[in-house]
Amino acid sequence: MQTAAGKDYKKGQPLAPDGPYLLSDSTGRMRMIQVDWKGRLKDTLFQALPDDFSFSVVSHKGHHRFQVRLHPYRRQAWKIQQSEKLMVISDPHGDLDCFVSILRAGGVMDENYHWSFGRNQLVVIGDVFDRGKDVLPIFWLIYKLELEAEEAGGCLSFLLGNHEEMVLRGDCRYTKDKYKRLADTLCLAYQQLWRENSELGGWLRTRNLIQIIGDNLFVHAGLSSDLLQRVDSVEEMNKVLGENLSLSREERMEVSPLSAFVFNTKVGPLWYRGMVRSADQYFPVEPQEVTALLEKFGVSRIIVGHTIFDDITTFYRRRVIAVNVDNEENREKDRGRGIVIENGGISVLYDSGKLVPIQ
């Protein structure tokens, strides 16, 4: 079944390239929703998917195109060993050009959009949603590379950020209109395209909040001193996050004390800025509390995104590293875009492929 519609029924504006969104039903049928280059909405229902099913993903401007095949997914272990080389970036926010640029610069992906990092590891610390026009292509590229990394003996870890939790509960204040217009045309709320029955929605609900790789702890925003008084495990926090992403803010607060903490917009791990901001409004963590947090989780450093800086920035004698930058501006001005951890050292990575050790 295919239908076509070139206008948004509420605003009368043409639809922009978007998708694909894949949604399954209880009978095993799969619905694929996608807007092509002429603004036509293609809504296709598959009674059953062939074993070799794959589909093409194209960027908003058509500069990038790659094939994706569906694959089983599961929650990654919250603690794993570190590979020889580990690359870390954060907050792509729908900017596929910048995302592709840094993956290629770091040797993670080749010119044909295939994993080329071997048995090494990539960590993306959240926030693909919002602000940019290539949210779906970035999610599908991460999804695709995750499988290829596993097949090569490597690992790609995507952690959830505050913009994931916002969109999945229906807060779309930063979401580009192109996504809202498609949802309006389908007579749906945007978050309905990301429910558990959607391929990417189900996959997102198995991503982690906190992950430890070697002696590095990764979390989107930061860890507040509140965690020092808690006995909740990383595994429990990851599970609670995934299970409650569809709930409203009020419902999340009522599920359990752990859920209320995980989603807290001041001191919770998705939002807390007090590891990298010193103003009282951020409830800054003290140096001795950083030490206690490192000891609690058995790590040497905590690596965060969320709060944007002009360049890769370190705090507390390099025990906290902030990797969120203005991706487009930093790419244009040849500033840091991420970090590489290798042979006991940490270097800033640039789009040129240059590595500069953090002193």
Topology summary:
Layout: E1 18-24, E2 30-35, E3 41-46, E4 54-58, E5 65-69, E6 79-80, E7 85-89, H1 96-105, E8 121-124, H2 135-152, E9 155-158, H3 162-168, H4 177-185, H5 199-204, E10 210-213, E11 216-219, H6 234-243, H7 249-255, H8 257-262, H9 287-297, E12 301-304, E13 313-315, E14 320-322, H10 327-332, E15 338-342, E16 345-349, E17 355-357
Parallel strand pairs: 6-10, 7-8, 8-9, 11-12, 12-14
Antiparallel strand pairs: 1-2, 2-3, 4-5, 7-15, 10-11, 13-14, 15-16, 16-17
Put the structure in a nutshell.
The chain has 359 residues and is an alpha/beta fold. It contains ten helices and 17 strands. The strands form four sheets. A six-stranded mixed β-sheet has the order 6-10-11-12-14-13.
Attribute tags:
single chain; 359 residues; alpha/beta; Purple Acid Phosphatase, chain A, domain 2; 6-stranded mixed sheet; 17 strands; 25% helix; globular; disordered N terminus
